[in-house]
Fold each of these.
Amino acid sequence: MKKIIYALLFVFIITDIYAQDIIHEYQNLQKYWYYRFRLKNDFMLVGDCQGCSMPANTRNKGLQNNLYWSDGGASDLGWYIGILATEYKLLSDAGEPTDTTVMELYYALEAFNRID
């Protein structure tokens, strides 16, 4: 039994295991921006109005295209703020423009102040 455990440990130590493929880095980036686009356009309205910049939990794609929020709105908003903060850091490190991200982060913090 010890030989099997040692063999498995040896195999895991000498192999290179990556969580995300370097070859598919561009595909991962495209996937992120696609889901980011869907979040902004399908599950929320960015702005300073009542209910704006609050991510919705579900969406009804019927004739009226309604959004629905649950009681966990503050935690969903916290995740959204965390995503925006990470996006700001990555964009600024890459030398990309961060104006839109800063604007969305401002509106998300204002939404948090509204529900507080």
Note: The mean pLDDT is 83.
Amino acid sequence: MTSLAEANYFQAGLLAIMSATVIAVLLRNESPKLFVLLGAVILLIATAVMTSHSAARLEGSVWPIVMTAFHFAGVALWMGGLPFLLLSIRNAPEDVGIGLVKRFSKLAGISVAIVAGSGVVLSFIYIDSWSGLYGTTYGFMVCTKIVLLGLALVLGAANNRLANALPEQAFRILKRLSALGEAEIGIGFTIILAAASLTSQAPASDLGNRPTFTELAERLRPQALRLKTPPLTALSPATPLPDLAAPLSGNDDAFLRRQPAQVNSPADIAWSEYNHHWSGIIVAAMGLLALLSRRYPHSLARHWPLMFLGLAVFLILRSDPENWPLGPRSFWQSFLVAEVAQHRFYAFLIVLFAAFEWSVQTGRMTSKWPALVFPLICATGGALLLTHTHSLDNAKDELFAEMSHTPIAVAGSVAGWARWLELRLPDGPVYMGLIWPNCLILVGIILMCYREA
């Protein structure tokens, strides 16, 4: 118990709980004590810094800690304040809402500058060269954050442009601000998950064994689709389940013994590529049919969401052959392995895709909220995919896995929020209805190009 109390993450978590509780209690009062509230907010940000890469550095950590604190504070002001702005303008009188929007627009501009500036400094600290940017998982995730930040800035710029047009067309513009703000929050949440994934990676400056341009080009070179699997008998034996009862000790490797080993034989690789390639074919076909249904809304193409059911069944049956129904592990035992549990959760999301979106596309559901299920789950699935890890021992293999899965996550998020804006914006823009089907096609192409060796 003493060792736990001395652990940095325990102390940070305890302080975070205390700070959040103080903030929640103070905000229930009509006139909270602002200095106490500000102190609790600063302490809450400090707890996040305590568990960051900057606090873990053995030397020269002061400057990274300062930049990390600014980075977190900028995100808190921008993305943390945006939901409260949307809630406020929905319930406030029109003139008050206009004032809130214009004031927050200035605050958001300052916050974005803080986030971008501190992010650039931290990148120079943790990424030592160009090879660290393109040749490590850390660098690749930084590039992903940059792309997502760019998307959020596009939405933020649209919000700012509308804010400057107030109050001439206040009611209609405030409605657009609300919809754009919702998408901006969603992209911001995805960025935060990307940052969480980044925190789990070693900084690029601490990693060697980086792939060369030649190795990257070879891995990205297209190959023939793998449409047949090897026999089950050729696959590696199922790894033992984590021993949750094994005692932990600081003097041995008990923790490592609790983790299942990762073994990839040629047959295992062939099976994985088969799964990805067939999934890509299904997803690309869905995207093409969805695009076709935009042109011919009453054709058979409008039933494209039913293909999600086939994808879900395929994933459950074929994605993890060491588990039920093909392998020795039972249905419930399979959930003890994090990667398998994630696959099953994704299959569940896909079934929700099929049920709700098919009902919407065929007119069986006419209310507004069922139509929002598809974009919300699509965006959520893309965001969660950023946290999906394969726990590979080889840094190169881990990078190659991220190079295929991360673009899918970004495309999924873009597809979800494009569809959301199509539904939520007044007179939904036609181009939004073209973006998300093409994102599905892109996801399918990426999956069809997937390689593990």
Note: Residues 252-261 have pLDDT under 50 and may be disordered.
Amino acid sequence: MDLERLLAGPLGRISPRIAGWAYRGLRRLPPIRRRIEAEYETLVAGLEETVKPYRDDFPVHQRLPSAGLQRPELLTELEDLARRERATWKQGFASGAVYHGSEDHIGFQSRVMDLHSQANPLHADLWPSATKFEAEIVAMTAAMLGGEHATCQVSGTVTSGGTESILLAMKTYRDRARAERGITKPEIVAPVTAHVAFDKAAHYFEMKLVKCPIDDSLKANVPAAREAITRDTVALVGSAPAFPHGVIDPIQELSELALERDIGFHTDACLGAFVLPWAERLGYPIPPFDFRLPGVTSMSADTHKYGYAAKGTSVVLYRDKELRRFQYFTASDWPGGLYFSPTLAGSRPGALSAACWAAMLSLGEAGYQEATARILKTAAAIRDGISEIPELIIMGDPLWVIAFTSNSLDIYQVMQRLTERGWSLTGLQHPPALHLAVTLRHTPEGVTERFLEDLRWAVARVREEPGSAGGVAPIYGLAATVPARAMVDDLLERYVDLLYEV
């Protein structure tokens, strides 16, 4: 790859910090910048067919039509688009993404959203049903996550997703520390495997994120976390489990450290909140991670993942209402009237809250436990099958989010070969790896066998023809070899530009 030869080689011999400085200096030179931009265009163009496959098959709309199109015509196009995309997730080719996906569940959720399509929790006087749904979602989630055992009344709010839940929790700790301790330069301490939403929170709210290493088991390193805490630390973070490798951090030890240092502790259970309680009931050795631990002061739990709600809901929980109040926004002197908002958005889709409430009640404890049993059984079979492939290595000791790497093959080339067979897996880095988040879409008969057969084929192809796959493999390869992260950031920005091109 020209870009890699251009900069990865010489920059690879210096530290990442100096490499970033050197890259930013080099890209100011017009000849170098033109060459870099040309390479970016080539790399991004290789992804255009994947993200823009409909340009030749459907009309492109760059401005409003002079007269509105007929609804039957639009519905036909929408049905065609949905049909083309349905097979990938319906047949279990995706990692995560669609967590339930049965026809009757989708139909039920769609009916609920149709009934409450106009609801907006911002207007509680018009739609008190929306506040009923959200209050009960929070209460049920809190009870499931140890709230009944907490000394205080666990409270929370419904959000748009795990990222917003994490953003709001970090904003809450920032504001509490500023009000009660006078901290003006707040810091978050989190393991390197913590979700990138913590990076986003630090970026948006002008907080410092101090990242700690993980140990050989891929769990947060508690002694390193202890050393990282300063007088400006407002929150310590652990994951249950961490997104990259599906490994649960030592939440008990971390939360005890937070309690000892009188700072907040956040358990990010976006992935695990609706799996781990039922796995524990099924007899799996699940370490404590929720409000049963006195040091846990907040949690994030995604209802739209293994809670099987429609996409667009999550829950952020706090050990008590006083802490939750630091999340709110209020305005008492606006000419438009008295204003308050519990989350980042003002108007919110009440239909999604209704669908979440209905999903939780329709499944109940028995439904979630049965789904968890099926997922964990399937994940064990997949994990065992991967372990039997000599070139692959399972990372850590995961339950259902299974990460694997290789010491002898380019794992990103394996990912690309799997893509050719229809699979959509998640690429990881530091070190290069892939993961499959097992869902109910993987539990039907034959899906596990198909995945393992295709994985064995992909490994064989890469072994026989190394370096021949295209697609995302070169981009991940570049990210793994170039120390100047600004270069990778530039490339990602151009990829996002591509998504918004018509």
Note: The longest strand covers residues 233-239.
Amino acid sequence: MSDVAGAIAITGIGIVSPLGRTVDSVFDALVTCRSALAPLSPAEWPHGTPPVVARITEPLNVQRRKGFRLSRTDRLAVLAARDALSDAGWSDDPAGCGLIASTTVGGLPEISPTLARDPRRYFRRGGFSAVTAYQNSHVADAVSEYLSLEGPRFAVSVACASGSMAIALAARMVVGGTASRMLAGGAEALCEFTLSGFNGLQALDPEPCRPFDKSRNGLNLGEGAAFLALEELSRAKARKARVYAVLRGWAMTNDAYHLTAPHPHGSGISCSVLGAMRLAKVGLDEVGYVNAHGTGTLLNDVAEAEGYQAAFRGRRDPIPVSSSKSYFGHCLGAAGAIEAVVTLLSMRASTLFPTLRQHDPLESPGIDWIADRPRRRDVPLAISVSAGFGGSNASLVFGLDG
């Protein structure tokens, strides 16, 4: 890719996940096919069969500040964004940096069900500070406050496509000159309310999930955070920054079909993939890998597979596809950002990480399912795809030729 105005360099990565707190630890887990999925204990989930989740057991130590209460989601975001800022070399001059942060639960995990039973007692016992951290915008507030970011600040919450959309919107702001530097990503903490909701939808697999397998039986929820540092490629080269990859294209679409179910033929997904490729000016045969949304639910996986078959129809070879949720679970508002990091690691290491537990793949002509073990292959260009409730879809095209 030529050094043209609008080329977006990824110069920093920060990740906090059940597989590790650093890029290196996450890579080691991926390349050895180690999953973070495990059931909660009966003591932690006294409501029946404990769900399988991916959770972070290490302490999330963030120095407290007077007048600012951080939820668990906030702490995840601050730690990941701080690492991305440092990795990009911006820690000494953060003021002009902007931020787009995504989440779906925000501070909801901090609010006790006792609020509904006795609100007065709840607030008298200190519940007010938990409620103030509830709104999704608080994540962006917390990161900007703790990292002294004075550039534009936005919060994004469009279900499970939120993390990818945060990155796409940040790239658009850099291209448009709204900010010269942006941090973009998402954070999500495990939440009893969310687990109960997905359980009510009968969407949880009581065992570790197996995306795109014929015997798939649902998803597992996870928690974590990831942020990317974005700037113009010309600026990154001028300051001799390390460039992980170039964000060459992005697209966002909406199914306009159903509140929870995806379009049965994956039309919104295929449109987002094709739109991102058009913006990136790349052809079907140039894409080396797709990091799929891949939840493991009955409807999503079939619809998504159909979407890829439609998007890559006419390609010479089947498109390699795998799902990272078999390692991390579904991290909802953080999923797209975490999976963008996985995509970058795959490209940098010339390694396609497999979908775990995919023993009997869906029959999908035109798709090369990456399963069982990592596959060594150069990946100069890859796409990370996210989809969410309500029909939101987002695709990010990354290239190594910056």
Note: Residues 1-5 have pLDDT under 50 and may be disordered.
